[in-house]
Amino acid sequence: MRYCGGLKNNFGWDFTGCTHMEELKLVLEEKFMIRRLKTDVLSQLPAKIRQVISIEHAVDCSDKKLKALVKKLDNDSLKGMERRGTLLAYYHETGVTKIKAICDYVTSLLEQNKKFLVFAHHQVVLDAICKLLEDKQTFYIRIDGSVGSEERKSVVDQFQYEDKFRVAVLSITAANSGITLTAANLVVFAELFWNPGILTQAEDRAHRIGQQDSVLIQYLVAKQTADDYLWPLVMTKLDVPSPI
């Protein structure tokens, strides 16, 4: 009644409001919780290191599709929703054509016995990574838009506290906030995203309070794909060295 603005109407009680928020804040801080902002404890966190890894995209029928989409985008008459649709198609086709190189890179990490997070955007890329891990008989967790809050907590705990779970396969848009995965100190982005703020939030699933080691962030970038368009957007916001 006091803090949810309880009102009685024809359908019963409605507790969807919020009232006396300042008082509630004081009560919570006094009796129940301490909230520490990342900015307050940044000096206590280990370093974050970013790398760009240049990978080769597959040269096959997808390569022809990429070139056709680039040609279409170069047409100045392409405007509005049609241009946006073409860009999204180019982005999706880039993910498809990078799959083999992504899987090869993930395989090399498995051989190094590393525990790591791998982020991607498209379901087809997430599915391909998961299939690889299953073929390699590697325990992993997956969090995408289909995973509810209760299940998220369960799989996060598996990754955090069980050594056999070596890889977390994560959706950039569905798993960029609200979870802590500090059991790993390597974060790999199989795909880019046009909003750098989302990427930094995703990076911080591992680079947050509780992390004891420096965190290595790796971006897998393929030339002559949509990455050529996305990477300049990302690079202007992130402190990233040249590709290695």
From TrEMBL:
Domain of life: Eukaryota
Keywords, alphabetical: Hydrolase
Gene Ontology, cellular component aspect: nuclear replication fork
Gene Ontology molecular function, alphabetical: hydrolase activity
One of the GO biological process terms: DNA repair
InterPro entries recorded: Helicase_C-like, P-loop_NTPase, SNF2/RAD54-like_C
PANTHER family with a match to the protein in the record: DNA ANNEALING HELICASE AND ENDONUCLEASE ZRANB3 FAMILY MEMBER, SWI_SNF-RELATED MATRIX-ASSOCIATED ACTIN-DEPENDENT REGULATOR OF CHROMATIN SUBFAMILY A-LIKE PROTEIN 1
UniProt-recorded name of the protein: SWI/SNF-related matrix-associated actin-dependent regulator of chromatin subfamily A-like protein 1
Species for this entry: Diaphorina citri
